[in-house]
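Students often ask why we bother predicting the structure of a whole assembly rather than each chain alone. The short answer is interfaces. A chain on its own may look different once its partners are present, and contacts between molecules only exist in the joint model. In this exercise we take two input lines together and write out one structure for the complete complex. Read the inputs first and try to guess which parts will touch.
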Amino acid sequence: MADTTHLRRLYAGADFHAEQHIHPEPTSFVSRYVFSMDHKVIAKQFLWYGLAFLALGGTMAMMIRWQIAHPGTAFPVLGELLWPESGGVMPPQAYASFFTMHGTLMIFFAITPILIGAFGNLLIPLMIGARDMAFPTLNMLSFWTNVLAGTAMIVSFFVPMGAAAGGWQSYPTLSTLAGQPGAGQTLWIAGVFLTGSASIMGAVNYITTVVRLRAPGMGYFQMPLSVWGIWLTAILNALFVPVLAAGVLLLFLDRTFGSHFFLAGAAVTKGGGDPILYQHLFWIFGHPEVYILILPAWGIVSDLLSFFSRKPAFGYKATAISMSVITFLSMVVYGHHMFVVGMSPLLSQGFMTLTMLISIPSAVFFLNWLGTMWRGAIRFATPMLFSVGVVFVFGLGGLTGLHLGAISSDIYLHDSYFVVGHFHLTMAASVLLGAFAAIYFWFPKMFGKMMNETLGKWHFWLTIVPITVVFCGMLVVGYGGMQRRLYNTDAYAFLQHLHPVNVWVTRAALFLGASQFLFVVNFLSSLVAGKKASENPWEVGTLEWTVPSPPPHHNFDEIPLVVNGPHEFSHPEVKGKDWLAQNEPIRSETEPAARAAAGS
Amino acid sequence: MTAVAAARFPSTEESRRTSFVGMVMALASWSMMFGGLFFAYAILRLKAGTWPPDGVAPLPRLLPLANTLVLLFSSYVLHRGVRKEADARPGALLGALKATLALGSVFLVLQLAVWVPLWRSGFRIDSGIYGSIFYGLTVFHALHVLAGLAALLVLVPGARSGRLRSGAQSRVRVSAMFWHFVDAVWVVMFVAVYLL
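Now the answer. The structure tokens for the assembled complex follow.
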């Protein structure tokens, strides 16, 4: 039970309600579905938008894999359509722009919209007991700025010389006019700048909403861990995306106005710039960015493991605090991406030490996950399966991170497929499985329909097996010495013995891609003909499950008074059910203060 | 954004606080962007053997110093105009807004007076890293001054009609915060680019 003295103090602040009026529902189509300011509608917009880019980025990944396993052969069907002049074979320039845009689209236009845009928007107000975001118009602008950014990215495929092809980091000199003379790279900069602005708008909104609009009784340590994860992500977004903005701004000046920030050597005559400078700016943002992507999934998984184990989250506070510590540490470790640029050894060792420190809070919440499941009455519904999947692949990804954080092994593994395998396990596989867990779990609340459990379980098993094979296979070939971004690995004698592994990785990748159709079918058919969802189909206690599915425009008829933590399961004093809503006082003489505060 | 919050929510003390928290976060974000630019400058400066690089004339200091004083004075004027006490004096806000708009415009004119002769003398954005930093940073800042002026300009009709009276109203307060932020960035920029 929450401490009730602060409840009464909070509830006494009657001004709180003055701020959250019930606004009439918009009536026109445009204000309701297009430029909507309702966080639940914006969440759906972000979900569709992110899923569309996920499909696009995923298809590009399939083609990249095809080129690695079968260089010089045409990708079935699509190859002939895209590159008729080469008989369907992907040309080197297209290969480079595909791996560049695959990364860019997946990070900024698939993962960010789904985990942060859709679930951040859906969950923050509903879970903290607010009627909407603090700044609804800003919320709407954030989505449409993102659409503008996505448009710039899509258009860049169709300009002369194609889309950006300097890697998703777009390091100079690859991304300067010498490396990328086409307009594609400039559009990439515009797209990143715009999507960054959209992220910042969202982040400012999220942070303010959590700080200001929590329902009475919802202290920070009564918040569900999903909100913790999204909130910490928002803090990192607000503080570090601007640094990327500064980096790409200077790159833009170099490309467009002829400045010399990142030009050096023969490219300049009077006082040169420094290409490495871009790497600093990029990774000051880039390392927090990987936590930006994973923190929402961590939070969501922490909640779901507790919900489906029918036990309070083990070490709830420790999980919240360790996620916060990681958030802080992620700000001061970026140098571990740059061990090979010739940094001072003292600095390298400092960055290595700080990086290794992240293992401690990571181990804390990882063990808390296991502790949550330990001896729980686990219900293996689809969201739970995907959550356990996250625990598994994130474990693999986290452990392989140690090899890359240590200078002595990183120098050999740098720029190899080991890196690709590692970061895909952490920020692709974990995040993707976390996103699926979230979709299966909150689909009933979003759309008022249940998804099909049987298809969901098939989808899980046909995803977890190939996804593990794909990214662990990448670890293997990377350890064997295979570099990233090679157009034709078979051209190198020392890599030819890795060919069979690459073929298997590609087969698993295509299998993984194909099994996502189960999800598409499930999602669409449930939307049309799914079983109607009850208010609380999963029998959990967080606030979004105390309102109808889908919730009314204003979410809560009355702002709830929170008296419990988010994971009040199997409470010995509760009879007849094993869960307790966050605003549901225990009818017991031992808690008179809570009843008084609730006015019951 | 905050203007909208103010429109949707009545201007209670609670919603003013919400706007304030949002603006603080937005400015923290903005500071990180300028922080990134200053970091870039610091790295390039540390790597350069001599500064300014050989063959480049040092930048003028007198005009930029005068400009710094103009901006600082504008912040002072605006601050006086949006204080709660100004609520009691009708027209105080309008006067402060007009004075700040005038001082901000003077700043931009003086900036042009710095840029144009330098550009004409052949010192341009593409003439080495010194020119890149000088024009990149100061022009980007000037764009923020323009944005700040626009944010203040849209308050003028409200101030004239008496609907807006002081910084007790969120719209006025956050616009003033942005203006002070732009001024603070300039002070750092003046010291870093012109003096050091």
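Check your guess against this: The first helix of chain B runs from residue 2 to 8.
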